[in-house]
């Protein structure tokens, strides 16, 4: 019994290692497109997109009766191209919390074929805005008054020297 359990665990881990993995990256505020190919015979099965580590993944969007679907908040699009056998997913308005492990899955009622997707999100670069301010300089009456004062001082110096 123990050998059977170990063999099952080993086979499970070998199977998991052979699953394809897609790596994508995007910038904060942008969007990313993910294409998950799948094998022949799965065209009519429901497809879904999940997030999280393998055992604790949560469904984000599922397409059961239509080929394309969008989440209510318009963050995720899922489209199934059954002719090319590719599940297309788009994530909009990326933020740093979107980074992580995702899964494209086919609900085949037995073994669910899945593709692991690793998403990295880079912080958006800071936009620097340089603003030029032009100040109109006006000559004030103080300058004229100051000049008159200097003339008087020079006059008094001239008289007393």
Automatic annotation (TrEMBL):
Q: Which UniProt keywords apply?
A: Membrane, Signal, Transmembrane
Q: Which Gene Ontology CC terms are recorded?
A: plasma membrane
Q: Does the keyword Magnesium apply?
A: no
Molecular function GO labels: transmembrane signaling receptor activity
- Domain Immunoglobulin, chain residue ranges per copy: 21-122
Its annotated compartments are: Membrane
Chief subcellular location equals membrane
Q: Which Pfam families match?
A: V-set
Coiled-coil annotated residue ranges, if any: none
Tell me the first and last residues of the signal peptide. Answer: 1-17
Keyword flag Transmembrane: yes
Q: Which InterPro entries match?
A: CD300_family_receptors (IPR050671), Ig-like_dom_sf (IPR036179), Ig-like_fold (IPR013783), Ig_sub (IPR003599), Ig_V-set (IPR013106)
Gene3D superfamilies from the entry? Immunoglobulins (2.60.40.10)
This protein's name = CMRF35-like molecule 9
Native species: Scomber scombrus (Atlantic mackerel)
Biological classification of the source:
Eukaryota, Metazoa, Chordata, Craniata, Vertebrata
């Amino acid at each position: 019994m123990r050998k059977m359990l170990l063999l099952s665990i080993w086979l499970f881990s070998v199977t998991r290692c052979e699953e394809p993995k897609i790596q994508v990256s995007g910038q904060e505020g942008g969007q990313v497109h993910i294409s998950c190919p799948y094998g022949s015979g799965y065209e009519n099965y429901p497809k879904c997109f999940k997030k999280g580590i393998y055992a604790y993944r949560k469904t984000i969007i599922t397409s059961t009766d239509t080929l394309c679907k969008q989440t209510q908040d318009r963050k995720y699009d899922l489209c199934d191209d059954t002719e090319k056998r590719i599940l297309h997913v788009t994530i909009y308005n990326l933020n740093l919390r979107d980074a992580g492990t995702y899964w494209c899955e086919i609900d085949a009622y037995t073994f669910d074929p899945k593709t692991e997707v690793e998403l990295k999100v880079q912080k958006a670069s800071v936009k620097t805005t340089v603003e030029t301010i032009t100040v109109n300089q006006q000559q004030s009456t103080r300058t004229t008054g100051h000049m008159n004062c200097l003339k008087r001082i020079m006059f008094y110096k001239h008289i007393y020297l």
